[in-house]
Task: inverse folding
């Protein structure tokens, strides 16, 4: 056991929590406008600890004894027992399929949940990213939130959030993952509704929570299935009494006493090495339920609707929670559960489809939005889609690529959001890109850093986004063009690397199924390339409209529109530097083109080190063709955006002119109808008829014509709602569809139930109660209101009891 | 020593009630002070008992038992009614919760009760006496006396200090529960008499532990078990209240004074679940096994139906009352999942619901004290006016909707896990599909729960400030006073404590629950492991039961 890792694991969540408690207690009265200090200190401390943790994990990975090297490195620290229900479940064993050493694994199980933290590469990477970005955002927020009534409250929530998020990525148990999964959801709820007096903010908070609850429902059922299938919710191997010391765990044998029995964790090294995972529909069910849970938290289709509304929260919150950290929890979870997903290629395919589709959908919506933060929110959804797409490739390259994109995205998306916050700060709270423009001279620092963020997001060489997006595309490309699936089952004779068929989950697939899957990956690959074009287009649309064209400042900004103070610019600068260099540095340090040290590091985590996934490892290579295509596509997007939007004000609606069906909206336009009156012969006729008191004829004819034209106009009106532009502008009507399909029916059902309750259930009860009620009415006439009588009755009753006692005793 | 402490704990409230009744003309101030002192003293005694309870929950024959002959004439007729009280894992936490909630109840009545205060507090303490007695009684007659004793004071609390329709509500509450409990009593007497006829001891005994043990040696015939199960069901299911016997509850809650609602939701409803756990499961195991699917369906119907009806409410108290129907459905679901996880979750959830819903009713009372309205539409944005009130409301709401890290989650998760495990791995083949549907429906109840509670919070506490103008002096409406914070803070402490360390609570009740659960669970498991019989589950259960 590495002591330093233990201390770091405990300190990283503890410091933010401590800071939150200090601010919550001392904030309102004592600290007030100094409330940011404990939180920033706490987060900075956690960030230092995270760096130490990363270094230690790296060192431990390098110094693993060769016999354990295959299984990767993990270290588990147990704090206390949350719940223990002895002999809760008799895990059935289908003895035939179990390897001999696993037979000790079946039998009576305790439902035992220990509060245990783990350190491995995946956790260390997430911790490093979360605490670093959180520290910068907290510094930015110290400037941004200055003077807010709830200053201390804000920083207390931030501390609480970072505590929950760090716990989320470091716990070693599905139940605790769920605990902190919901805990970050609660923090998100509180922070979205931070300005609770705004009705939109309060509604957005509730919406976020409820949509997430739908995902959590699936997550809960997945957990139940995992428990019933594997008989534990732990990731790690342990003994039945909770011991996690590796030496003692490895030493457990079939003859060990019951409390020393080995409990193989769901993602434990023993199980991964043995490849002992259920396959078939059960594995698919578990994975799809987990995926739906992840879709809730990471705002993927069909549960993506909450994230844009969540932009009602303060901007630093959008940057930290709704861009860099919390929304990536779903990606982290799927990556963590790689061994489970590897057991179900169907589920992996669904992950890829979900990701690819969401990326495209969100990219299309982002094109026509006017709210700068919402554009970025849809961009986040889209980029998270990329990450899922990569994870869905189901290869080591895919998973590490998804995590790499998660890592770089955290920096440039936080940068973009904080930049948007800086703009919003200067514009007096206005965030509609139609209302301001040409801010580059006014806000040079924001302009420069925002540009860097946009370039990184678009994937321009050599910024961070370029490298990670390239890896994502390469992972899909492997499955799509290079017949990775066929290669893995050895059924692609033409392939030079064809291996003999390995008994894996894919082995059961027929050639047609493999071909279909390959085709789907191919579609996804080209979809991803197109999304890449959209990304560049909407990003630079927002950028050009904000910073170029004629300088325009809304009235709300007053006369003091200015560049943000250094406290806010400094985090922007740091993030910009990271956005430039993170990808480059990782690739450069790895010493080979296409390799990156992050991927090498992550491959040391147990979930990726062994098992089915490990057979998909490919040597690092740089995909010049993919890089070339994606760069070309990004440049095309950037150039189109500059061509369309560089000029001035009206271009905000250029897409409307291109893609909206004109004409139909005239019918509903009062000005156009009023314009009819100005046509000479119409007005002359009207005047004439009015002059002979027959004005009603005009009205009647007008109504008749109106009604007739409405019938004719129905196709046009429908066209109005589903023109490409309208679809995008209205977010493909998801909110309306969900309202019509879920919210309204349930509300009506609720009213019906209440009616039934009052008139039928209670009516029956009352009818059945007629007889007693009649007796009751007799009693009522005797007793109503006479409290003394009741007192007397009670005393008499007591006397009867005492008397009875005496009589018995005497008798 | 420890058994005398238990006696003292139970009788302290009675002494307090008698004192208050004797000084019926005492001023409001002195009456409430006396009541508070008595409640606090009771709480202190109860906490001493709980601290001394064995942490592993292993007991040989109860804890702090006092057992003296009461109405007993063994020599003549064999009649053996004893005054027997003691604690075990089944009643331990409900006992503690009772002592805790009555302090809250006294504190929130502090200003709200203006008329006939001494009588009010006397009734409240009498109610506490009854509740403490119910959870400690070890004799059927004693249990029944305490059981009925809880009715009378609450009848007065609702009927005298309630709102507009208090008389109707009080009568309905009284008749509903009384008629049920009479059937229950007959059922319990039948058990006693059957035992007298068949145990061969010649004793007409009423000891719960003795009867349970004896009935496991000489089980009742299945038909009689079913009949008696129905009789017990009548009283306990109304008390819970199980769908569709719940209609008295919203009415009683709406009309009751805040303290009455807190106790009604927090303690009295649990007597129903406790009754099933104490009597039906261990004494009538075959009937329990046979009725299991029906009970599970009723429980899940309550969960979903209660949540849907709660969604349609416009009255704060009614909404929370219907949420109780939903939450008690969870308790019953866990109980009748009949596996360790489910049953332990169920009892934990009883405590959780007592704390969170008790707290919510207290908060509604505080809102009512300020604005004299319970209509959601009249209120809005109160977080601005009363941040502490909003803080507690959000905390109790989170607890109620099962946010992890707080107590509600621990109970709900164990219940749902137990139910799912029963459905997935431990159900007879013919029932497996049904059970999976039940488990999934119940899990979806959690989503609905979040919906109506968060919507309530959004409408009442967030958004722009909106206050009814009937009171005319809204500027004087203030945030929580120290007294009100003290009423809520202990509940908040337990919300966090149970959420972070549920094992402190589970371990103390585990062994007792295991003993209560096992007879019925064994019959269910036997039916499952007899594959030839599994095709016709109901019949097979009966067959197995008859074979015994």
Result:
């Amino acid at each position: 056991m590495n002591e330093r890792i233990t201390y770091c694991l405990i300190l990283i969540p503890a410091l933010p929590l401590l800071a939150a408690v200090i601010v919550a207690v001392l904030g309102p009265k004592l600290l007030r406008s100094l409330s940011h200090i404990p939180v920033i200190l706490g987060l900075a401390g956690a960030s230092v600890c995270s760096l130490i943790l990363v270094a230690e994990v790296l060192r431990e990975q390098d110094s693993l004894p060769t016999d354990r090297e295959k299984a990767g490195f993990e270290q588990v620290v147990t704090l206390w027992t949350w719940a223990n229900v002895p002999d809760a479940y008799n895990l059935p064993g289908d003895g035939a399929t179990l390897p001999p050493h696993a037979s000790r694994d079946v039998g009576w199980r305790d439902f035992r949940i220990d509060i245990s933290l783990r350190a491995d590469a995946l956790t260390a990477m997430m911790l490093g990213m979360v605490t670093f970005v959180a520290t910068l955002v907290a510094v930015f927020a110290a400037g941004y939130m200055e003077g807010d009534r709830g200053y201390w409250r804000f920083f207390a929530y931030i501390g609480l959030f970072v505590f929950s998020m760090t716990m989320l990525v470091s716990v070693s148990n599905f139940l605790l993952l769920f605990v902190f999964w919901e805990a970050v959801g609660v923090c998100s709820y509180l922070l979205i509704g931070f300005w609770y007096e705004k009705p939109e903010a309060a509604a957005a908070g509730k919406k976020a929570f409820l949509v997430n609850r739908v995902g959590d429902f699936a997550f809960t059922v997945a957990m139940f299935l995992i428990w019933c299938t594997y008989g534990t919710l732990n990731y790690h191997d342990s003994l039945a009494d909770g011991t996690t010391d590796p030496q003692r765990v490895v030493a457990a044998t079939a003859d060990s006493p019951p409390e020393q029995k080995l409990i193989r964790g769901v993602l434990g090294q023993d199980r991964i090495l043995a490849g002992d995972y259920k396959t078939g529909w059960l594995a698919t069910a578990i994975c799809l339920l987990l995926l739906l849970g992840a879709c809730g938290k990471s705002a993927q289709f069909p549960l993506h609707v909450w994230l844009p509304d969540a932009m009602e929260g303060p901007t630093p919150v959008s940057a930290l929670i709704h861009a860099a950290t919390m929304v990536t929890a779903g990606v982290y979870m799927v990556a963590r559960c790689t061994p489970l997903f590897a057991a179900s290629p169907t589920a992996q395919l669904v992950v890829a489809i979900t990701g690819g589709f969401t990326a495209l959908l969100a990219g299309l919506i982002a094109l026509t939005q006017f709210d700068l933060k919402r554009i970025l929110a849809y961009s986040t959804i889209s980029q998270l889609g990329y990450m899922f797409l990569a994870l869905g490739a189901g290869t080591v390259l895919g998973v590490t690529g998804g995590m790499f994109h998660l890592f770089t995205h955290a920096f440039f998306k936080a940068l973009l959001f904080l930049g948007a916050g800086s703009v919003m700060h200067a514009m007096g709270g206005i965030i509609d890109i139609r209302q301001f423009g040409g801010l580059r001279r006014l806000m040079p620092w924001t302009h420069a850093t925002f540009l860097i963020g946009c370039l990184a997001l678009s994937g321009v060489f050599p910024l961070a986004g370029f490298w990670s997006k390239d890896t994502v595309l390469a992972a899909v490309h492997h499955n799509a063009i290079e017949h990775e699936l066929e290669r893995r089952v050895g059924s692609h004779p033409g392939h030079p690397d064809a291996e003999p068929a390995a008994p894996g989950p894919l082995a059961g697939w027929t050639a047609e199924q493999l071909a279909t899957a390959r085709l789907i990956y191919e579609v996804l690959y080209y979809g991803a390339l197109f999304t890449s074009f959209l990304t560049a287009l909407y990003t630079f649309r927002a950028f050009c409209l904000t910073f170029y064209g004629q300088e325009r400042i809304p009235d709300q900004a007053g006369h003091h529109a200015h560049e943000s103070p250094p406290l806010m610019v400094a985090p922007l600068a740091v993030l910009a530097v990271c956005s430039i260099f993170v990808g480059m540095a990782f690739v450069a340090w790895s010493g080979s083109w296409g390799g990156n040290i992050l991927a090498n590091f992550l491959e040391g985590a147990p979930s990726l080190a062994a098992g089915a996934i490990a057979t998909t490892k490919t040597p690092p290579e740089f995909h010049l063709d993919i890089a070339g295509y994606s760069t070309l596509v990004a440049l095309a997007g950037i150039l189109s955006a500059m061509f369309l939007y560089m000029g001035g004000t009206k271009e905000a609606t250029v897409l409307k002119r291109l893609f909206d069906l004109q004409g139909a909206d005239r019918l509903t336009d009062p000005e156009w109808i009023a314009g009819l009156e100005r046509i000479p012969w119409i007005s002359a006729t009207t005047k004439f008829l009015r002059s002979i008191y027959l004005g009603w004829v005009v009205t009647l004819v007008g109504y008749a014509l109106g009604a007739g034209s409405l019938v004719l106009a129905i196709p046009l009106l429908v066209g109005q709602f589903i023109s490409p532009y309208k679809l995008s502008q209205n977010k493909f009507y998801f909110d309306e569809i969900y309202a019509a399909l879920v919210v309204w029916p349930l509300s009506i059902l609720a009213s019906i139930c209440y009616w039934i309750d009052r008139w039928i259930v209670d009516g029956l009860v009352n009818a059945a109660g007629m007889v007693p009620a009649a007796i009751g009415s007799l009693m009522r006439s005797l007793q109503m209101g006479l409290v003394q009588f009741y007192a007397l009755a009670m005393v008499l009753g007591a006397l009867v009891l005492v008397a009875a006692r005496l009589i018995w005793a005497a008798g | 020593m420890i058994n005398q402490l238990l006696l003292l704990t139970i009788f302290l409230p009675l002494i307090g009630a008698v004192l208050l009744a004797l000084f019926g003309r005492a001023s409001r101030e002195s009456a409430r002070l006396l009541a508070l002192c008595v409640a606090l003293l009771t709480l202190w005694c109860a906490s001493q008992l709980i601290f001394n309870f064995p942490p592993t929950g292993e007991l040989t024959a109860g804890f702090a038992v006092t057992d003296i002959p009461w109405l007993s004439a063994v020599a003549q007729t064999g009649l053996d009614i004893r005054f027997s009280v003691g604690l075990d894992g089944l009643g331990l936490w409900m006992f503690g919760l009772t002592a805790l909630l009555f302090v809250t109840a006294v504190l929130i009545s502090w200003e709200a009760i203006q008329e006939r205060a001494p009588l009010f507090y006397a009734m409240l303490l009498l109610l506490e006496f009854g509740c403490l007695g119910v959870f400690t009684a070890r004799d059927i007659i004693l249990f029944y006396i305490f059981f009925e004793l809880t009715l009378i004071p609450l009848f007065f609390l609702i009927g005298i200090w309630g709102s507009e329709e208090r008389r109707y509500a009080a009568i309905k509450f009284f008749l509903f529960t009384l008629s049920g409990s009479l059937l229950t009593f007959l059922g319990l007497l039948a058990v006693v008499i059957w035992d007298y006829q068949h145990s061969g001891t010649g004793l007409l005994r009423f000891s719960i532990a003795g009867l349970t043990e004896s009935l496991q040696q000489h089980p009742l015939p299945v038909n009689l078990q079913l009949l008696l199960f129905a009789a017990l069901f009548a009283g306990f299911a109304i008390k819970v209240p199980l769908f569709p016997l719940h209609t008295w509850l919203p009415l009683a809650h709406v009309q009751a004074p805040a303290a009455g609602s807190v106790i009604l939701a927090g303690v009295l409803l649990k007597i129903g679940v406790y009754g099933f756990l104490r009597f039906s499961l261990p004494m009538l195991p075959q009937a329990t096994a046979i009725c299991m699917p029906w009970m599970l369906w009723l429980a899940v119907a309550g969960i979903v139906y209660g949540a849907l009806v709660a969604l349609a409410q416009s009255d704060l108290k009614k909404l929370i009352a219907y949420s109780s129907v939903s939450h008690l459905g969870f308790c019953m679901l866990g109980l009748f999942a009949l596996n360790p996880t489910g049953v332990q979750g169920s009892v934990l959830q009883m405590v959780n619901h007592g704390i969170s819903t008790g707290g919510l009713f207290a908060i509604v009372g505080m809102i009512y004290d300020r604005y004299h309205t319970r209509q959601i539409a009249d209120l809005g944005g109160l977080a601005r006016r009363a941040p502490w009130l909003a803080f507690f409301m959000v905390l109790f709401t989170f607890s109620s909707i099962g946010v992890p890290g707080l107590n509600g989650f621990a109970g709900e998760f164990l219940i749902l896990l137990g139910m799912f495990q029963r459905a997935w791995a431990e159900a007879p083949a013919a029932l497996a599909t049904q059970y999976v549907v039940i488990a999934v429906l119940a899990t979806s109840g959690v989503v609905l729960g979040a919906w109506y509670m968060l919507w309530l919070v959004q409408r009442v506490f967030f958004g722009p400030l909106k206050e009814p103008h009937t009171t005319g002096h809204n500027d004087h409406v203030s945030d929580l006073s120290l007294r009100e914070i003290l009423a809520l803070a202990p509940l908040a402490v337990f919300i966090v404590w149970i959420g972070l360390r549920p094992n402190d609570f589970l371990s103390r009740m585990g062994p007792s629950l295991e003993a209560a659960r096992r007879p019925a669970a064994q019959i269910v498991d036997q039916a499952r492991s007899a594959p030839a019989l599994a095709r016709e589950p109901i019949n097979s259960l009966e067959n197995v039961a008859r074979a015994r």
